[in-house]
Amino acid sequence: MESQVDLGFLRHALMPSWNSVSPQFRTPLSVALLAGFFTYLAIAGSILPGKLVPGVALADATRLHYRCNGLLSLLLLVGLLGIGANMGFVSPTAISDRGLELLSTTFVFSFLVCKLRVDIWSVTLVLYFSGCKSQSKGSSLKPHISGNLLHDWWLGIQLNPHFMGIDLKFFFVRAGMMGWLLINLSILMKSIQDGALSQSMILYQLFCALYILDYFVHEEYMTSTWDIIAERLGFMLVFGDLVWIPFTFSIQGWWLLRNSVELTTASSVANCFVFLIGYMVFRGANKQKHMFKKNPKAPIWGKPPKVVGGKLLASGYWGIARHCNYLGDLLLALSFSLPCGISSPIPYFYPIYLLILLIWRERRDEARCAEKYREIWAEYRKLVPWRILPYVY
Ligand code: NDP
């Protein structure tokens, strides 16, 4: 009986409700929120000023250019939402009140067809078919069709599909990271509204907000990451960006809304240290590689860099482990969960998932680099034997 009630509740919570935005427009609120969010991102991304960053050279020697105005877009959006909430146009808890509904709507969005002209952004099926038509395009648009429809739909067939001048891969990852912050802010408002704002919630919110803001401050680094340079845009990436990032990375916040945790001062201080060390390693390593790619002679930690075969950096963080940046990210992920205490494994979903993902990804990257750099990579491996964590892995 109880499970029937729970299932009924779940079905109800997942279904887009017809609580419309206004009597004139009978649109489910979750659909309106998503459509509004995507429309804002498309407009802001196209018109707001930002540094134009050249991407890595493609197979045909051309480069795409990315307008890195994510930080400005995000700050403006949060400002506009703040004003809207103050004036009573939007509810600050609109997202946290209907998290499951938004989740299912976003899932459907990432499953269905891209139809910007009409008024709905969606994605993967049409990417598949439009991709098939672009045989004559440059290497970033040239379709890679395996013949297995499911495989091609899942992994994608184009490296950098565009829609109305918008680079969809860059757009979706931006939407995911911003969506995560918006969900968190709505959770924060909900806990304030409920009179249940705790130290745990403040720490969780602070760490995530700093991480997300930092991501947008350094948005140009994104242009040289694996997702942008190597992964094609299929359902896997779209789902990862639009559903997985915002809805699973915020599990700790949802959990804290329903559970209270008493943190000692010592554990809070230790938690801050984990965050700071994680941040230092994560940002430091990614920055060193980025600087090295731009200028292979740029000093690392005040000294000339140690370089293998003229191409691989083997000093700084890249001399400690071959993927020290993953170590930093894992420490950060842990710091987002520690405010929830250790009474439940649920808030540890994100660090556990990230551990599995990054070990898998490190293996794939290792294979890619071994093939690309051959004897240079073997020499680098000898010089830096650890993959992620020195003396452990
Ligand atoms: P990296 O930024 O580590 O990029 C790997 C590439 O860097 C390699 O393929 C190679 O590319 C180059 N490279 C590797 N070693 C060296 C070296 N010693 N010197 C010079 N170049 C080198 O990987 P990712 O793109 O996977 O990750 C970027 C960041 O994103 C990481 O910090 C990661 O933690 C984070 N991330 C977070 C996720 C999350 O869900 N939170 C998911 C995935 C990543 P080339 O051929 O160009 O030389």
TrEMBL record:
InterPro entries associated with the record: ERG24_DHCR-like (IPR001171)
Spans traversing the lipid bilayer: 29-50, 71-95, 107-129, 171-189, 195-213, 233-257, 263-282
GO MF annotation terms: Delta14-sterol reductase activity
Domain of life: Eukaryota
Localization per Swiss-Prot or TrEMBL: Membrane
The keyword DNA damage is assigned to this record: no
Pathway the protein takes part in: Steroid biosynthesis
Its membrane topology: Multi-pass membrane protein
GO BP annotations listed: sterol biosynthetic process
Annotated keywords: Lipid biosynthesis, Lipid metabolism, Membrane, NADP, Oxidoreductase, Steroid biosynthesis, Steroid metabolism, Sterol biosynthesis, Sterol metabolism, Transmembrane, Transmembrane helix
Enzyme Commission number: 1.3.1.70
GO CC terms, sorted: endoplasmic reticulum membrane
Family as reported in the entry's similarity comment: Belongs to the ERG4/ERG24 family.
Protein name: Delta(14)-sterol reductase
